[in-house]
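Whiteboard transcription, Tuesday session. T.W. wrote the structure tokens on the left side:
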């Protein structure tokens, strides 16, 4: 089987897959109105594997290169009073999104067949195919009215895809015994591409609906301290809920630093790193009074090229034997029972309520926090590094490049 999966373009596969009927147990399609028709037509139709592997329009789009923009291009793109900038932005997305999604579909197809057939992974694969067709079949955008309709579709798709990371995490958990490197590369690419697509889509939506102090999704003077404070509060509440106690946070360094930046990726990375530090601190100091627990110290450093956030905890450090594996997707020191509690209890609902813009996930358990944060940081032209002082605690360095255009930056 896995031989079949790898050689997806060979005629051997085409003959083989036609005989296999695939039926995801869960369909992840959303029930929002305009994609509802698609869903009604498609629901419960058993899929032949050819549906996933042989689609010419997807192959054609996957053969095209992606056009990536620097944040500075977006920041200085300029505004036209007649809305021409909105039209240009939608037209760029209309060309670009099907290509990016087709590349990801190609990624799903190259997974070993046994992994690709996991029902949860297959459902995400199908969600991408559905998104491809919805975007690719949208009529050419020629007016601001078309652009507004297109935005409606984008909004629905963002919503339909909001739990993709959670689904991938649970799908790959069932495939843990397979090739670590291959899964790691697939997830790095899928998750960073998803981040890029979401940044582009959110940018387009926020151009139409602009907030003060913003150009689309770029906050022209983002205060790092405010973003950190928001997520420290969030993690404190989560810890109270999970442990009945919470660690304290102390900010130092360039606490007044403010500069143009995109908050969206920080809203993923920071809660993950802070949850890890809080969990380690609380579990390591299980028997001391909350006021005697050593605080988690966060230091901000800002300079012309980049900014660095260091999170230092005194949670005992990462044991020598785990230092290399903590960066693997799905590696967690949570027990399976803990996973069950967190993922199926009323808990995730509480998290969603606390943060309706995105789900910041349970306290721990998926083993996705560190590898996803590192992939995002690298995608953003930075990095994530850990220093464990076994017996004392852990220092995590998150380094991110500025987007103001003074120096080279990443491309979205
Ligand atoms: P999860 O939190 O879901 O387990 P992560 O990828 O965030 O997944 O972390 C993986 C593992 O790394 C954790 O289960 C924990 O054992 C270890 N770890 C991460 N951060 C720290 C830290 N600050 N101190 C001690 N151990 C840590
Ligand atoms: K991990
Ligand atoms: Mg974690």
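and on the right, the sequence the group agreed on:
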């Amino acid at each position: 089987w896995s031989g079949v999966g790898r050689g997806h373009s060979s005629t051997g596969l085409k003959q083989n897959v036609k005989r296999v009927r695939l039926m995801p147990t869960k369909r992840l399609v959303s029930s929002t109105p305009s994609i509802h028709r698609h869903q009604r037509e498609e629901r419960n139709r058993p899929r032949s594997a050819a549906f996933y592997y042989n689609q010419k329009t997807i192959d054609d789009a996957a053969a095209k290169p992606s056009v990536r923009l620097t944040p500075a291009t977006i920041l200085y793109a300029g505004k036209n009073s007649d809305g021409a900038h909105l039209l240009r932005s939608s037209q760029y997305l209309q060309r670009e999104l099907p290509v990016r999604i087709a590349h990801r579909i190609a990624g799903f197809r190259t997974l070993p067949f046994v992994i690709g057939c996991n029902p949860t992974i297959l459902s995400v694969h199908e969600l991408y195919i559905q998104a491809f067709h919805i975007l690719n079949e949208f009529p050419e955008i020629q007016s601001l009215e078309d652009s507004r309709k297109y935005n409606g579709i984008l909004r629905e798709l963002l919503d339909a895809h909001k739990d993709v990371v959670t689904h991938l995490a649970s799908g790959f958990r069932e495939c843990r015994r397979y090739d670590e490197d291959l899964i790691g590369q697939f997830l790095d690419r899928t998750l960073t591409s998803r981040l890029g697509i979401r940044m582009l889509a959110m940018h387009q939506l926020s151009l139409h609906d602009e907030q003060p102090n913003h150009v689309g999704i770029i906050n022209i003077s983002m205060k790092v301290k405010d973003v950190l404070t928001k997520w420290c509060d969030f993690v404190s509440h989560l810890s109270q809920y999970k442990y009945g106690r919470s660690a304290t946070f102390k900010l130092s360094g360039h606490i007044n630093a403010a500069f143009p930046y995109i908050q969206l990726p920080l809203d993923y990375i920071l809660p993950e790193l802070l949850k890890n530090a809080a969990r380690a601190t609380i579990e390591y100091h299980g028997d001391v009074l909350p006021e005697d627990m050593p605080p988690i110290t966060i230091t901000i450093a800002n300079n012309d090229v980049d900014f660095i956030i260091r999170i230092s905890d005194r949670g005992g450090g990462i044991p020598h034997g785990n230092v290399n594996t903590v960066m693997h997707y799905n590696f967690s020191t949570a027990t399976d029972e803990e996973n069950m509690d967190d993922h199926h209890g009323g808990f995730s609902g509480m998290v969603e309520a606390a943060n309706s813009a995105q789900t910041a996930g349970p306290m721990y358990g998926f083993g996705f926090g560190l590898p996803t944060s590192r992939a995002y940081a690298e995608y953003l032209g930075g990095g994530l590094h850990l220093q464990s002082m076994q017996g004392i605690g852990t220092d995590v360095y998150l380094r991110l490049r500025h987007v103001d255009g003074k120096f080279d930056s990443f491309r979205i």
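Someone added at the bottom: Residues 180-208 form the longest helix (29 residues).
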